[in-house]
Amino acid sequence: MKIREITPSDSDNLAQLIVKVEKTSDFMLFEAGERKISGEQFRKRIESFGQDASTILVAEQQGELVGYLIVVAGNANRAKHSAYLVIGISAEHRGQGIGSQLFKQLNAWAKDHQLHRLELTVMESNSAGIALYQKNGFEIEGIKKDSLFVNGQYENEYYMAKLIG
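^ thats the sequence. predicted structure below, dont judge the formating
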């Protein structure tokens, strides 16, 4: 397993992976097929990295992207120390420690880019996700009641965050 920063040449594969993850998980913001994403859209975003502390880390196994961790840094001066995270792992690779490997790489990357706060939201019913985040130092800071409507029911989301040294 190799964890690395994304390159523009990965953009088509990342778009395909995100579509695959959204199709196989009830815990992503977008439903299967809800949004249309293209490699070109990701290529432009990847090429814009360097203007702020944003990136995408990818997990690669045998030349195939199997996981991603999107890091979106604040762009206002008062929020540049903070980044919002989105993680996704292909269904057949979940539960194999890939998420923890992505977070381990993120910790080093975040320190190098002077980030102090990492934050995310997670559905209250996503016990595996919550366990992963807590295992990697995230704490629940609050709750967004009836934040999402999933499979005919309202879902609460937890705000979770981690402060870095």
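The longest strand covers residues 139-150.
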